[in-house]
Amino acid sequence: MLPNNIIQKNRVYAPIIVGITLLLVMFLLYPLYTSHADTRITIAGLEKTKLDKQLKIDEVKRMQALFAGSGSSDLKAKVEKYNHRFNSSDIMETIMVNKYTTNTQLSPAQIAIWSISINEWKKLPSGLTLGSVWFTLSADTPDQVVDYLTYLTTNSPLAITIDTINLPLDTAGSLASSTAISLAITLGVYYYE
Q1: Quick check: helix, strand or coil at residue 192?
Q2: Based on the domain organization, do 67 and 115 belong to the same domain?
Q3: Residue 82 lies in a domain
Q4: Do residues 94 and 187 both lie within one domain?
Q5: Are residues 131 and 167 in the same domain?
Q6: Which residues are CB-neighbours of 121 under 8 A, at least 6 positions away?
Q7: Do residues 171 and 92 both lie within one domain?
Q8: pLDDT band, very low/low/confident/very high, at 176 (cuts 50, 70, 90)
């Protein structure tokens, strides 16, 4: 059996050793516990954000399916006008190669175009980009100019608007039978880039 003074010493040291052990365990494990708790909170927040975003994505996909299935061809055609990149060749073709500007075997072209300038312009807040096209044209009658500009703004494959028309219109003759006109015009071409 152990002597009494050794048992007495063990009784004094035992609470000190247990206390030091508890302090060491607390100082070592507490930071691990707090980082684990913070990580769980962060993960819970991220999962909530992920769920919210997934719900938004599902809503957008549902709307896309709704529009794709029941969207009118007119709406699709209008949206398709914006769905291209800036390409000066396409713009030149739209403006200069159409039924108004090309000769046929039976008749000359209704519209003559010269001095054309095409510029990429600026990005708009909507995400679209606006290009600028400046040119001069001449026609035999004002109605031909109106028909041509109507074609460009409504029936062309690009989204084109009339920005400016330089006035006064230059009429080539003062006789009532001669109504030939020429004018300078600036068009806006919208595209998505």
Answers
A1: strand
A2: no
A3: no
A4: yes
A5: yes
A6: 129, 130, 131, 132
A7: yes
A8: very low
The candidate with the shortest Cα–Cα distance to 157, out of 88, 102, 95, 73, is: 95
pLDDT for 86-114, tens place per residue?
888 888 999 988 888 888 888 888 898 98
Q: What range does the domain containing 109 cover?
A: 88-192
Please state the domain count of the chain: 2
3-class SS of residue 74: helix
Q: The domain spanning residue 142 has which CATH number?
A: 3.30.70
Shortest CA distance to 110 belongs to which of 139, 153, 152? 139
Distance CA 184, CA 137 (A): 6
- A 10 A CB-CB count for 119 gives 13
The model carries a pTM of 0.58
CA distance 192 to 78: 13
State the greatest distance between any 2 C-alpha atoms of the chain, in Å, as a whole number.
140
Question: Which single residue is written with the structure tokens 């054309």?
Answer: 116
